[in-house]
Amino acid sequence: MYENLILKGEKDSNKNCILSCEKRKAEDSDVNKDLKKAKLETKALKAKRPGFTDDRYNETSYYIENGLRKVYPYYFTFTTFTKGRWVGEKILDVFAREFRAHPAAEYERCIRAGTLTVNYERVDPDYRLKHNDLLANVVHRHEVPVTSQPITLVHIDEDIVVVNKPASIPVSGN
Prior knowledge:
RluA_PseudoU_synthase, RNA-binding, RNA binding, pseudouridine synthase activity
């Protein structure tokens, strides 16, 4: 049940406004029921959503070839919930506009093949998105090889760590 704050204004003898507030329980209306239902549906979908666990990362493996570390190709599921601005729009239109890594024809092929799904179910390219729809797009990933040279430690003290990182290995600024 949701609570609302009610502000009441009173004037004191010096004509100053004194505000007081009290909590009031909201009535259990259809709007509140719909909101609760949406939250439950979201929790259920999140429970199915693939996470970034150790098991997930252990699905990939790599090998060394000609001085390069290469990752074996693997499948990955990109997921996102429907954004408010997408509600009522066709799934194909949203993917063609918002995810421009591929042309619309490729997204249409994925929808028809069932690798691009809504709530893990196959839909038509004309499907109109609803609140809390979970979009999942399964892709076959091929990662760029990096050097197999080791990362060596050059200097370490309590203020700084200096490493000799080969140029092909990506870093994060965090």
